[in-house]
Design brief:
This protein has four helices and six strands; from the N terminus they run H-H-E-E-E-H-E-E-E-H. The protein is of the alpha+beta class and 152 residues long.
Length: 152
């Protein structure tokens, strides 16, 4: 065996230290044990979003075109906003999500969705045709504000 082959063999052996691999498997085993105990002992879930009561709601229709711009209208057809408006691009993103979910569920037509404000201040999008509910938390203040403006 040449000196280069010997160096490569030693280098490959030392790339990931054995103790690190053992620690990784120990962490996986500990996590599995904790989850198993929590399920077995019926420990209540933590960090789960609680859906607060709805204090304000508005029904809207979202219609997209081939360029990805979504228009938001009232059920009577009056224009409310578009995703091309200033800081409203997230409306187009959620419009595509709703359209995809309806495609998966085989929903035809363009039923309305509800934008709701909950008692705790959270904004949510509810699509009764698919049963989808999207709580707009963690999407950034400008993105949530785009939908909050639809309620004002």
């Amino acid at each position: 065996m040449s000196q280069l082959e010997q160096q490569m063999r030693n280098r490959d052996r030392e790339m990931v230290p054995r103790i690190l691999v053992q620690a990784m498997f120990a962490l996986m085993a500990a996590t599995l044990a904790i989850v198993t105990y929590a399920q077995w002992a019926d420990v209540p879930n933590r960090g789960v979003l609680v859906e607060a009561p709805i204090v304000e709601a508005r029904e809207i229709v979202m219609t997209g075109d081939r360029s990805g711009v979504y228009a938001v209208t009232a059920p009577d057809g009056s224009a409310i906003a578009t995703s091309a408006d200033e800081k409203a691009g997230f409306i187009g993103v959620m419009g595509r999500v709703i359209a995809r979910e309806r495609l998966v569920h085989g929903i035809t037509g363009n039923p309305s969705v509800q934008i709701v404000r909950r008692e705790n201040g959270n904004i949510a999008i509810l699509d009764d045709s698919t049963g989808m509910a999207v709580e707009l938390i963690g999407y950034g203040k400008d993105n949530v504000a785009a939908f909050a403006r639809l309620l004002d």
